[in-house]
Amino acid sequence: MSRNDGASGIEAAAEGRHLVFLDYDQAQLDNAYDQAKSAPNIKQVLQRLASNSEITRRRLGEPQRFAYGAAPIEMLDLYRCKNKSAPTFIFVHGGAWRSGTAKDNAFLVEGFNAAGVNVALLDFSCVQDVGGDLMTVTDQVSRGLAWIYHNASQMGIAANRLYAGGHSSGAQLLSACLIKDWQLDFKIPQTFIKGALLSSGMYDLKPVRLSARSAYVKIDDRAEMVLSAQRHLDKIAAPLIIAYGSYESPEFKRHALDFHAALQAAGKPVSLICAEHYNHFEISETLANPVGLLGRAVLNMINTIESTAK
Predict the structure, then answer these.
(1) Which CATH entry fits the domain spanning 39-309: 3.40.50.700, 3.90.1300.10, 3.40.50.300, 3.40.50.1820?
(2) Given 41, 73, 155, 161, which is the most exposed site by the fewest CB atoms within 10 A?
(3) CA 40, CA 33: separation in Å to the nearest integer?
(4) Mean of pLDDT values over 38-62
(5) How far apart (Å, rounded) are the C-alpha atoms in residues 310 and 295?
(6) Please, what's the b/e burial string for 286-301 (b: 16 or more CB within 10 A of its CB; e: otherwise)?
(7) pTM
């Protein structure tokens, strides 16, 4: 989904605009990575997710809390369902890499537990707390995923039934983890994540690096290459669901469409969901409902893969 052509460049020059990416000038690119521009109800939705998460904990009880690393933030919340051999859905929250907690994403748990799926919610550093280093945050998420696999027995879950999902910057982090060499780095099969949802994410960091987000996220040449999942399609082993909302900014739409097209062209198992009339934040709420758009999609993916594995 390219926005750039010769005509747009000529028109931009005639208008005195300096293009920095595709046919975006700097202000347009900055706006395209500012979700508040396309989601004026951002504060309301985030408050609703937090309050629904609190209600969920009151109904289900507090989760088990596990440390996957030495830093205080390197923890995860586990909500187990009644089925001892159930699959587990690991969720990586969003927040533009600079906000968000496992606690405030418990809103999605109850529907999954009721459908017979455990939920693990990861905590990790806000990027500003690690000097803007996105590599460090990605390493935390990777170690969290690896710890779950290696310590599944201690957690009371099945290591061979792990699924994952991420939203927004969480989808970018998860996508960067999916392209790691798991056997080399963690002695884990490349296929240990059986299927994954990537919702409203960013899969090539070049335009992000050029945007106003570079004020708080350090993306050098190495990070841009290593953390851009679209450049390493050969490493992706899990079937993927790529999702975005029709009310997303043009860049978040483009990321989803371009990544999906690239995965298809590479022969990877992938499906695409456009959530009609949902913005960047509203789409994540549908994970809470087992018959909601993303809730149904993830549960269908899990059920399909599980039935095939039997």
Answers:
(1) 3.40.50.1820
(2) 41
(3) 14
(4) 96
(5) 23
(6) bbbebebbbbbbbbeb
(7) 0.94
